[in-house]
Specification:
The protein has 5 helices and 12 strands. It is α+β, with helices and mostly antiparallel strands. The protein has 2 domains: 195 residues, Bira Bifunctional Protein, Domain 2 (BirA Bifunctional Protein, domain 2), CATH 3.30.930.10; 46 residues, SH3 type barrels, CATH 2.30.30.100. A 7-stranded mixed β-sheet has the order 1-2-3-7-6-5-4, with helices on both faces. The protein has a 5-stranded antiparallel β-sheet with strand order 11-10-9-8-12. A hairpin with a 5-residue loop joins strand 10 and strand 11. Helix 2 crosses helix 4 and helix 2 crosses helix 5. The chain is globular, with a radius of gyration of 18 Å. The N and C termini lie far apart (44 Å). The model has no long low-confidence stretch (mean pLDDT 95). The protein binds biotinyl-5-AMP. Biotinyl-5-AMP binds next to helix 1, strand 3, strand 6 and strand 7.
């Protein structure tokens, strides 16, 4: 992968790997060392890419984007909004290509209802302080990046599949990072939240949120709380908020 064009962006340092276990793992280590703010670990292939709850993330060679941005959180009050920052940065890059992305709360980007990208946010702690946030992003660019359907619970696609024409991987990476740099100074604002909320999938539809072994609260998806939590209304008209979980449209059996 040719990442020279990233040199012009006001970011930290870049560590590039042809192959790696997980860019988030490398970024978490680097973040405890001397990584300058907005440094990035990028890999052409991941052999142990991770999703949430130690789920696997598939990143075959030469076909996807897998990278992790190290953010020093000084001055950011709403750290829980960083997942929205990543989601909007990817969604904006899709829109710039003429696509119509949706954000499946909290961390998936959908194109035509299918997952094209996933986000994994992890924090580095020193005592009770967060010293760095690692924003991991996996984006399916070419057809070959899409895992076989039998390995997935939710349908997946790639940018190339949905665009129907060739897409440049390096340019897409540059666009996502540029969008992130542009959105970052606005992360605390109401406009940022509104923009995030406006792109949520399943708004005003009945969804189920799997939050743990025995908890699957369901309700009409209303929008976002100021901390990025998901606001819903149950069948009795009572509003409630969830802060983590997997959203699905159909009630679970
Ligand atoms: C995510 O988790 O969607 C977060 C994925 C984050 C990946 C990036 S790549 C760079 C950085 N380094 C890492 O090691 N990770 C980050 P979650 O919502 O838990 O979804 C995981 C599920 O998505 C898996 O259980 C699969 O069913 C499905 N999946 C795996 N690979 C996929 C792919 N390439 N495209 C679509 N779905 C996939």
């Amino acid at each position: 992968m040719n990442i020279k064009s990233l040199n012009k962006l006001p970011i930290g340092e870049i560590r590039y790997f042809d192959t790696i276990g997980s860019t988030n793992d490398a970024a978490l280590v680097w973040a405890t060392e001397d990584a300058p703010n907005l440094s990035i670990v990028i890999a052409d292939e991941q052999t142990a890419g991770r999703g949430r709850l130690d789920r696997k993330w598939f990143t075959p060679k030469g076909s996807a984007l897998a990278f992790s941005v190290i953010l020093h959180p000084a001055g950011i009050t709403h750290l829980s909004r960083t997942v929205g920052l990543a989601a909007l940065s990817i969604a904006d890059a899709c829109s710039q290509l003429g696509l119509s992305p949706q954000i499946k709360w909290p961390n998936d980007i959908l194109l035509n209802g299918k997952k094209t990208a996933g986000i994994l946010i992890e924090a580095v702690w020193a005592g009770d302080q967060i010293t760095a946030i690692v924003i991991g992003m996996g984006i399916n660019i070419f057809k070959e990046s899409v895992p076989p359907a039998e390995e997935l619970k939710f349908p997946a696609t790639s940018i190339e599949n949905e665009l129907g024409s060739p897409v440049e991987r390096e340019q897409f990476l540059k666009d996502v990072l540029s969008n992130l740099l542009k959105r970052l100074p606005e992360i605390e604002t109401a406009a940022f939240l509104a923009s995030w909320e406006s792109q949520l999938a399943y708004k005003q539809q009945f969804v189920q949120v799997i939050t743990g072994a025995n908890q699957t609260p369901g309700g009409i998806l209303l929008g976002l709380e100021s901390d990025g939590g998901l606001r819903l209304r149950d069948e009795n008209g009572k509003q409630f908020t969830v802060h983590y979980g997997d959203v699905s449209l159909r009630p679970m059996a």
